[in-house]
Amino acid sequence: MKAERPSDDKRWRLVDATMRRHGHEPNCLIEALHTVQESFGYLEKDALRYVALSLRVPLSKVYGVATFYHFFSMKPQGKHTCVVCMGTACYIKGAQNLLDSVRSRMVVEPGDTTSDGQLSLLTARCVGSCGLAPAVVIDNKVLGNVTESRLSETLGRSVEHEL
Ligand code: FES
C-alpha cells in the first residue's frame, strides 16, 4: 500500500522521485532522507514517518539514522522557519542576496535560530518550485519570485509583529 503524502507540498514529489528511483528499497533510506533535507532544509517528524512508511522501515530505525549522521538536522527550534532555496535556478536569480538580507535583518546565521527563538533560518537545494525562482519557504508556505522587499515585508508580518 502506498503511503499517503503528508501534504500537497510539491517538495514531497522530489522525495518520492528519489524513493521511486531506488524501487522503494529500504536501503535507500539515507538517500531519501538526504532529499528531504535538501528540499525542506531539515527533517521533520512527518517526513520521517512518511519515509518510514514508504520504504517499510521501522520508524525507530529512521529516527536512529536521522539522529546519528551529523549531516542531517532535525526540525529547528524556532517558532517560525525561513528556508531560502539556494539551488541553481534560485541562485542565479539572486538567492544569495535574499539569504544575506534575512541574515542581517534577523541577526541569524543559516542553520541557526534567533536568540529570541522566533525564527530559524535554513537553506535548501531545491524546493520543487524552480519555475518560481527565487523561492523561499516561510512556515511551509512557498513564496515564488521573491524580492528582498517582499521577503522583508513577509517576515515582518509573520514573525516580527509577534515580538
Ligand atoms: S532551485 Fe530553487 S526551487 Fe528549484
Overview of this structure, please?
The chain is an alpha+beta fold and 163 residues long. The protein has two domains: 11-68, Arc Repressor Mutant, subunit A (Orthogonal Bundle), CATH 1.10.10; 80-162, Glutaredoxin (3-Layer(aba) Sandwich), CATH 3.40.30.10. The chain is 44% helix and 11% strand. It has seven helices and four strands; from the N terminus they run H-H-H-H-E-H-H-E-E-E-H. It has helices spanning 11-21, 29-40, 45-55, 59-68, 88-91, 95-106, 148-158, and strands spanning 80-85, 119-124, 136-138, 141-143. The protein has a four-stranded mixed beta sheet with strand order 2-1-3-4, sandwiched between helices. Helix 1 (11-21) runs antiparallel to helix 2, helix 2 packs antiparallel against helix 3 (45-55) and helix 3 packs across helix 4 (59-68). The model has no long low-confidence stretch (mean pLDDT 93). The structure holds FE2/S2 (inorganic) cluster. Residues 85, 87-90, 126-127, 129-130, 133, 135 line the site of FE2/S2 (inorganic) cluster.
